[in-house]
Amino acid sequence: MPKFSAISRERLESCDPRLQAVFNEVVKYFDCAILEGHRGQALQDLYFRQMKSKIKWPNGEHNSIPSKAVDAMPFPVNWKDTNRLCYFAGFIVGIADHMGIKIRWGKDWDGDRDLNDQTFNDGPHFEVVD
């Protein structure tokens, strides 16, 4: 059974308990890496300048404590394998639905399951919806 590395576990611990619950269930079946949980101001400002984020500090879901967003990828991480990322995301959304936790994925912001109608794609991004 896969398990998180110490670094991934530490990053996940900075997240909302609902995200922790979802990803602790996901990793039992799908090996994955947590790339980022909480994001401080310096990094959020940098990502905004680099256009990796459309949100300024402190308005991002990664900026709250605990973080309401997590960036995760299937392990081993392969940025070019977008099909595997989509498969992974579907697994996460399915697990979250089964647990009664609403998750928004960064390649389907409007939640309509149409990935072709997005203007900003953030494949590794998952956020809990209140």
Please provide a brief summary of the model.
The protein has about 130 residues and is α+β, with helices and mostly antiparallel strands. It has 4 helices and 4 strands, in the order H-H-E-H-E-H-E-E. It is globular, with a radius of gyration of 14 Å.
Polypeptide structure, described:
This protein is about 35% helix and about 15% strand. The protein is of the alpha+beta class and about 130 residues long. It has a single domain (about 5-130), classed as Muramoyl-pentapeptide Carboxypeptidase, domain 2 (2-Layer Sandwich), CATH 3.30.1380. The mean pLDDT is about 95.
Instruction: Specify the helix fraction band.
Output: 25-40%
CATH topology group: Muramoyl-pentapeptide Carboxypeptidase, domain 2
Order of neighbouring strands in the sheet with most strands:
1-2-4-3
Architecture, according to CATH? 2-Layer Sandwich
Average the pLDDT over all residues and give the rounded result.
97
The run of helices and strands is HHEHEHEE
Top CATH class: Alpha Beta
Q: Give the tally of structural domains.
A: 1
Major sheet description: 4 strands, antiparallel
**Structural class by sheet pairing and helices:** alpha+beta
Amino-to-carboxy terminus distance? 31 Å
Summarize the topology:
Elements: H1 6-12, H2 17-26, E1 32-36, H3 41-49, E2 69-74, H4 82-99, E3 103-105, E4 125-128
Antiparallel strand pairs: 1-2, 2-4, 3-4
Helix pairs in contact: 2-4
